Amino acid sequence: MAEPDDSTAATVAAARRGDAGALDRLFRRFAPVVHGVLLGRVPRFDADDLTQDVFETALRRLPELREDAAFPGWIVSIARRAAIDRHRRAGPVVEGEDALERVGSGDEAGVRLDAARALEAIRALPEAYREMLMLRLVEGLSGPEISQRTGLTPGSVRVNLHRGMTMLREALSMATQGESA
């Protein structure tokens, strides 16, 4: 695990005391992480809604958090459970339906279909790689930001990103070969 971030712990402590500014800072800092975790598991429209729900749950359950520095991992676990709960309530989802609903015409349609295929390929990856790639590619976080916000060591983040990208390239290459055959 990465070293605890004192600023995160201090912000969580302030949030526990009811500091609205601290709550806002936590949301701005961790919303991209939560959203990225959710995007790896649910369609975008659900991820957007669930991100807000995750923070509402975290606020309500903040007194249960034992160590303020554990907030990054704790909120990610809340996000994972929220996605699982959404799947249980919603039933099966047709792969890519979220992206395909938004497909336009011409070049834009091709780009959106490519993005939908890439998202489907990422969602098929093992969880550790899927989360890292969603945070890096979709949410735009750097390796050090991912490390700091997930609690993983920088080395673990680099390895997971590298392995995930390798698996993603292979999956997309196989999909492209399958289309041209």
Brief overview, please?
This protein is mainly α. The protein has helices spanning 6-16, 20-39, 44-61, 71-90, 97-101, 106-123, 127-138, 143-150, 154-180. Helix 2 crosses helix 7 (127-138).
What distinguishing features does this structure have?
181 residues, mainly alpha, 9 helices, transcription, RNA_pol_sigma70_r4_t2, transcription regulation
Description:
This protein is an all-alpha fold. It has one domain (6-180). It is 77% helix and 0% strand. The chain has nine helices and no strands. The chain has helices at residues 6-16, 20-39, 44-61, 71-90, 97-101, 106-123, 127-138, 143-150, 154-180. The longest helix has 27 residues, at 154-180. The chain is globular, with a radius of gyration of 18 Å. The N and C termini lie far apart (45 Å). Belongs to the sigma-70 factor family. ECF subfamily. One of its GO terms (biological process) is DNA-templated transcription initiation.
User: Biggest β-sheet: count, sense, barrel?
Assistant: none
The chain-level mean pLDDT equals 82
Radius of gyration: 18 Å
Tell me how many strands there are. 0
Q: Helix tally?
A: 9
Pfam families: Sigma70_r2 (PF04542), Sigma70_r4_2 (PF08281)
Protein name: Sigma-70 family RNA polymerase sigma factor
Keywords: Sigma factor, Transcription, Transcription regulation
InterPro entries: RNA_pol_sigma-70-like, RNA_pol_sigma-70_dom, RNA_pol_sigma70_r2, RNA_pol_sigma70_r4_t2, RNA_pol_sigma_r2, RNA_pol_sigma_r3/r4-like, WH-like_DNA-bd_sf
